[in-house]
Amino acid sequence: MTDIIKQGIIEKKIFLIRGLNVMLDKGLAELYGVETKYLTRQVRRNIERFPEDFMFQLTREEFLRCQIVTSSLRSQIVASSWGGRRYLPYVFTEQGVAMLSSVLNNKRAIQVNIGIMRVFVNIRKLISTNKGILNKLNQLEDTVQSHDKKIRTIFEVIHKPLDAKLLSPGKPFSNKKAIRDIISSCEKYIYWVDKYFSRAGLDWLSESLSASKVKGIKILMSSEKADEKFVSLYKDLKEELKSDGIKCELRVIIDNKLRADIHDRWIISENLCYNMPSTDTVARGQYSEVKRTANFPPFAEWWEKSRDI
């Protein structure tokens, strides 16, 4: 029963948006054998299970200009107010797809999700174990520039940085070690951007940062997550770090536009920058990915637009 959807069919529905492998609501509904409006209705009824690192809605500009959207797919969805719907498509990350089976609550959704998770894992394994084929793929890529953009999406996935680690529910201790290793490798400062920052992040900072290398920490998060209990824990950590000569600061995002603009989570230091899953995602043991990137976000600008707690 786990093979009710062939791997090749699933692969064609995985796209690259905002640097993430995602699946459109329409494509997922087709796999689950339900209408798109039914899928999105079930998600809205359980919206607390789908934070922005699980699901987000495409902007009009993203939808029209995103390089993974093929002309045929665009025409299908744009027709008749986005394909018979009155809203722009939603997309789901690996974590969001994993959560869908619980809200759809049927055996087919569970079996389809098993197949999808295997495809995500297989893509990463293919990349990490077949580095030798990249030169040939580069040559082949040059010959398909005039072909459908879906083909180019495959090459984008293949050319993603190899300095990445897939976090799996089956390896909770390894997942947390991966985060601690990043923290311990930071130098001079740690800037952590995570709208859904939680106590787990405070614990990992306390356990893993090197007081001899790091002298400043700045955490940027959403105001609604900074409740009284969290703030109390943060202040305790701040005092402990102060005794080690480390200045720890925390600001909350109060500007709605800035909150909407910050899609990803980051750990930034002088010598490195990582795209991160949310601390809650790692703590819960959900499927996610940690990857190093050379594209440093405008942290100083975000920090100035935020407010001290």
- Classify the helix fraction into a percent range: 40-55%
- Per DSSP E runs of 2 or more residues, the count of β-strands stands at 12
Give the ordered list of helices and strands. HEEHHEHHEHHHHEHEHEHEHEEHEHE
Q: Which structural class do the helices and strands define?
A: alpha+beta
Strand content: 15-25%
CA distance, first residue to last residue: 52 Å
Shape: globular
Q: What are the low-pLDDT stretches, counting only 5+ consecutive residues below 50?
A: 67-84, 144-148, 157-162
Side by side, the strands of the main sheet go 5-11-10-9-6-7-8-12
Taking Cα atoms only, what radius of gyration do you get, to the nearest Å?
21 Å
Described by strand count, sense and barrel closure, the largest sheet is: 8 strands, mixed
Mean pLDDT, to the nearest integer, reads: 80
Q: How many separate domains make up the residues? A: 2
- Provide a count of the helices: 15
Write a compact overview of the structure shown.
By secondary structure, the protein is α+β, with helices and mostly antiparallel strands. It has 15 helices and twelve strands.
